[in-house]
Amino acid sequence: MAGETPFRKRRPWRRRGPETSQDGTGGTGPAEGGDASAERSAAPPDHSGGFDDERGRSASLEVAGAASPDRPAEQEQSQAEPTTGGRLHAVKRGARKGRESAKALAAQLADRIIDTAPRVPVRDLATLRKQFPGLGPEELADKLVTGACRATATVGAGIGAAAMMPVPPAMIAELAAEVTGVAAIEMKLVAELHEVYGRRPPGNLGQRSTAYLTSWTEERGIDITRPTTLNAALGGQMKRELRQQIMKRMARNLPNLIPFMIGAAVGATMNRRDTRKLADRVRSDLRKDRIAWDRLPELPPLEQPANPAELPKEIEGP
């Protein structure tokens, strides 16, 4: 009859609790005359999660993917870290290593330039006036600047041509060779500009080389009337400023390493521009307190280094 059938039939294999008695009180026992072992074999296997009546397996409250005791927390954190975060960390680590390598290279180049400074051959005023007869101080200074710009442009073009094919180990050596070569040419220019304007620093070869190196680093003329400018050249501040100057030069010279002969044109143009800018700043300082040639005291000839550094022939002029 309608209405006597329940909405959902009770499962015939309902588990019996430990309190269920075999005489039928408190639960359904095995059918009379039936085999209990057969009924147990027909029942589904017991699972650790357990089944509830008519609702299936009970849900677990544990968070999926929680760290297990046998898995270290670092491994969990590395697996849970987003991919973008890992890439950003790798980029930061690479930038930090690159910055440390650049500082180490700048320190090495600074020591090399300091050792090269006393070996740069410098022409005194008498030699320059013989080589360029009939020129005044400004015309002679223009000739020196033109020759130095031509020489540094030659160095930049040569390094750019050598970097025609991108080879990373060779690129670092080429960059170091360009910085040291241009520094030697510009230090020679700075020293000879001091001669032209009658501002030769006092002292021996080593002391004058340190003064010229300081003038090149700070891009200014040495004031021989102020002893503090010469004493500062002998301290550790000059080395720090020299490393900073080398870092700036390396950053500006990076386009010179563009392959396929593009860096040759770029290197020549940029070196010529930087040398002229340096010369303009030094000459601006030297003009303020220059000494006329007819009022210059008799100065001894400049001693030449025993092992002079090799410089391009363009800097010597005609």
Can you tell me about this structure?
With 318 residues, the chain is mainly α. 55% of the residues lie in helices and 1% in strands. The protein contains ten helices and two strands; from the N terminus they run αββααααααααα. The chain has helices at 36-42, 73-80, 83-116, 125-131, 137-162, 168-196, 205-218, 227-231, 236-253, 262-288; strands at 51-52, 56-57. It has a two-stranded antiparallel ribbon. A hairpin with a 3-residue loop joins strand 1 (51-52) and strand 2. The longest helix is centred in the N-terminal third of the chain and has 34 residues, at 83-116. It is globular and about 70 Å long.
List keywords for this structure.
318 residues, mainly alpha, two-stranded antiparallel ribbon, 10 helices, globular
Short description:
The protein is mostly helical and 318 residues long. The chain is 55% helix and 1% strand.
Average pLDDT works out at 74
Uncertain parts? 19-27, 47-54, 60-69, 76-81
Order of helices and strands: HEEHHHHHHHHH
Number of strands: 2
Radius of gyration: 43 Å
* Beta-strand proportion: under 5%
**Structural class, please?**
mainly alpha
Reported for the largest beta sheet, the result is: 2 strands, antiparallel
Helix content: 55-70%
* Strand order in the sheet with the most strands: 1-2
Shape: globular
* Count of helical regions: 10
- Give the N-to-C terminal Cα separation: 128 Å
Topology of helices and strands:
Elements: H1 36-42, E1 51-52, E2 56-57, H2 73-80, H3 83-116, H4 125-131, H5 137-162, H6 168-196, H7 205-218, H8 227-231, H9 236-253, H10 262-288
Antiparallel strand pairs: 1-2
Helix pairs in contact: 3-6, 3-9, 5-6, 5-10, 6-7, 6-9, 6-10
